[in-house]
Specification:
With 218 residues, this protein is an alpha+beta fold. 41% of the residues lie in helices and 15% in strands. 28% of the residues are buried.
């Protein structure tokens, strides 16, 4: 199979997303193919790639541990609620999975806004009483492969990533992220939390997979 990569930047992304045991060989190929490039540019690319790979190789923290350590209580409760009612494999992916994933985790405040919209009286996600809906929300926040902020937020183009729900999220140059229903913003100061099995980004609204009609205030 022939892989054609046109720019140094896309080469870096491609190498970063491949399995670690291939990185040395692929990096050697990259250097050979790009001997005509400016040496300073090559050094910059290689340093950036090594920094990202080192971040991954030096951590043993799982996505599940990042969720716990950063106090994402509502997201954690949503995962537990769905796991008790339905099977989605998300618990295994976050805790012991070895394939890299990207997870967009809404803040607790983002979940509270959703609860208010649904007219809930408590902050207990099980009050939604629809585990299928909660499952779809979670699947709409998880993407295969590891996407750093630099790979998601581009100055010249929108980046689309496909979720486990089957739809695309679109990340724009201003850091906003759109689902098929609504949009949010990536909190760049709290994101890029690297795990051994993926990476976590924090968003300020729950990205919904289906339209939801907010309950009118009394």
């Amino acid at each position: 199979m022939i892989i054609r990569i046109d720019t140094l930047k896309s080469m870096t992304k491609a190498l970063f997303l491949l399995k670690s045991d291939l990185n040395v060989m692929l990096l050697a190929i990259l250097v050979l193919v790009n001997l005509s490039c400016n040496s300073n540019d090559m050094e910059s690319v290689v340093e950036g790639l090594n920094a990202e790979l080192n971040d991954v190789s030096q951590t043993s923290v799982s996505i599940d541990e990042i969720i716990f350590q950063n106090g994402f209580q509502e997201f954690s409760q949503a995962v537990q609620y769905v796991n008790e009612e339905l099977y989605t494999a998300l618990v295994e992916i976050f805790a012991t999975g070895t394939d890299p994933h990207t997870v967009f985790i809404p803040t607790d405040e983002a979940f509270y806004k959703l609860y208010n919209c649904l007219g809930m009286k408590t902050k207990d996600i099980s009050e939604i009483d629809n585990p299928g809906f909660v499952r779809d929300i979670l699947l709409n926040l998880v993407v295969r492969e590891r996407y750093t902020l630099d790979s998601l937020i581009q100055s010249d183009q929108d980046i689309k990533v496909k979720t486990y729900y089957g739809e695309f999220l679109t990340v724009k140059s201003d850091g906003s992220i759109e689902s098929i229903v609504n949009s949010s913003f990536i909190d760049v100061n709290k994101s890029n939390k690297v795990a051994s099995n993926g990476i976590v980004h924090v968003i300020n609204d729950v990205l919904l997979p289906i339209e939801v009609a907010c309950t009118e205030d009394d």
